[in-house]
Amino acid sequence: MGDPAHDSSDFLTDKSAKIFVAGHRGLVGSAIVRKLQSHGFSNLVLRSHSELDLTRQFDVDSFFAAEKPRFVILAAAKVGGIHANNTYPADFIAINLQIQTNVIDSSFRHGVKKFLFLGSSCIYPKLAPQPIPENALLTGPLEPTNEWYAIAKIAGIKMCQAYRIQYSWDAISGMPTNLYGRNDNFHPENSHVLPALMRRFHEAKVNNAKQVVVWGTGSPLREFLHVDDLADAVVFSMDKYSGLEHLNVGSGKEVTIKDLAELVKEVVGFEGDLVWDTSKPDGTPRKLMDNSKLLGLGWTPKISLKDGLVDTYKWYVENVVGQ
Ligand SMILES: NC(=O)C1=CN([C@@H]2O[C@H](COP(=O)(O)OP(=O)(O)OC[C@H]3O[C@@H](n4cnc5c(N)ncnc54)[C@H](OP(=O)(O)O)[C@@H]3O)[C@@H](O)[C@H]2O)C=CC1
Ligand SMILES: C[C@H]1O[C@H](OP(=O)(O)OP(=O)(O)OC[C@H]2O[C@@H](n3cnc4c(=O)[nH]c(N)nc43)[C@H](O)[C@@H]2O)[C@@H](O)[C@@H](O)C1=O
User: Fold this and answer.
1) pLDDT digits (tens, 9 = 90+) for 284-318
2) Where do the domains of the chain lie, and which CATH numbers do they carry?
3) Ligand 2 site-directed mutation target among 95, 122, 184, 193, most atoms within 8 Å of CB
4) What residue ranges carry the coiled-coil annotation (predicted)?
5) CA atoms of 94 and 226, how far apart (whole Å)
6) Most-buried pick from 28, 109, 277, 285 (CB within 10 A)?
7) 141: which DSSP letter?
8) Residue 79 and residue 96: Cα distance in Å, rounded?
9) Which residues lie with the beta carbon below 6 Å from any ligand 2 atom?
10) What pLDDT is attached to residue 10?
11) Which among 192, 188, 191, 189 has a CA at the least distance from the CA of 177?
12) How does pLDDT run across 143-196, given as a tens digit for each residue?
């Protein structure tokens, strides 16, 4: 699906090019900033949510008119785990549609050379074939716990495609699997499973609790990717990929929630028991993505789940517990 008009973005050749990383304080945005800095990029434009609310179309357009970035990576979004997605459907569809519509359209209108949108593996049908190829998009019903978020993300992919088709604009989309790492959200209810369990096991360990409650049955399978690997894939894709179709970004390895819970328990050093709260939803039964398209371009994930968990737990203890 390459587009000859855009086969080279020269992304890595000019380290002084102005890059806007939207959402730079979040899990993904902060990892992308670290990765860009490690490549020597020196002209990053960053705005916190309080400095620039991306749901405000006028403010976003004024920002682009003033800054005129050459490249844009959109890592700002309303994000949360299964409970947050299920509880705040209006926020997940409305805020994400607003942010991405404003940022995509202003990027195009103000001459951004290349744009990268981030979706999520939840865009695929609940019962998609496994591993899930990119062309499984829009082939069946979505998982109900996150369909509102998924619909917004699908609209983002389609908007990038529409601008590419109509204007030959170099907008690409990456679909990451479940991510984790430094700067994750460790909220007890609204976060994703991995930071939620890390916090719960840690608090149980320091309080000498005998049991920790884990949601669902433990049987769902999830694929996890360390956010530093994702950031590497984002920089790689900005440099090497230009095409209409989105790119899956995954580790290629899946684990049951039960095995993940045991692994987090071991890394944290909690010695009590797990209790399964089956009144909580399992969500989609399995979502392993087919990452062969990105691997075929030459990218490989490097961080194992165990190493990534050890690093994340150290960061959590030093930066979240220690505050
Ligand atoms: N985490 C994961 O497992 C996965 C994430 N992704 C995608 O990666 C991207 C980043 O996610 P992640 O880093 O985890 O999310 P985070 O919640 O960690 O970070 C999101 C960032 O966006 C900012 N933001 C939210 N709303 C606005 C707004 N209205 N105006 C300006 N900034 C805003 C947040 O700022 P503030 O906190 O101040 O509101 C925050 O810095 C998203 O597109 C997400 O869909 C995809 C797959 C998996
Ligand atoms: C990245 C992806 O993330 C979300 O989808 P999800 O994969 O279902 O995400 P999750 O991390 O919240 O849950 C994974 C599994 O883990 C179980 N689970 C156990 N115990 C806890 C727990 O304590 N917290 C959470 N959150 N889950 C738990 C939970 O019941 C489920 O079976 C999307 O909404 C959407 O945001 C999206 O795109």
Assistant:
1) 999 999 999 999 999 999 999 999 999 999 999 99
2) 4-183+224-251+288-303 (3.40.50.720)
3) 193
4) none
5) 28
6) 28
7) P
8) 9
9) 80-83, 85, 120, 122, 145-146, 149, 178, 191-193, 196-197, 214-216, 220, 222, 257, 280-283
10) 82
11) 192
12) 999 999 999 999 999 999 999 999 999 999 999 999 999 999 999 999 999 999
- Give the whole-angstrom CA distance, residue 116 versus residue 174: 7
**Centroid of ligand 2 to alpha carbon of 6 (angstroms):** 37
54 HSE (CA, 13 A, CB side): 28
Gap from CA of 202 to ligand 1 centroid (Å): 24
Q: In angstroms, what CA-CA distances link 43 with 8, 63, 167, 238?
A: 21, 16, 27, 16
- Helix or strand (DSSP H, E) at 225: strand 221-226
Helix (H, G, I), strand (E, B) or coil at 245: coil
For the chain, the average pLDDT equals: 96
Q: Is the ipTM of this complex over 0.95?
A: yes
The answer to whether the beta carbons of residues 263 and 195 sit under 8 Å apart is: no
Question: Kind of pairing, strands 170-176 and 114-118?
Answer: parallel
Instruction: Check residue 2 and give its pLDDT.
Output: 45
Give me 115's structure tokens: 């744009």
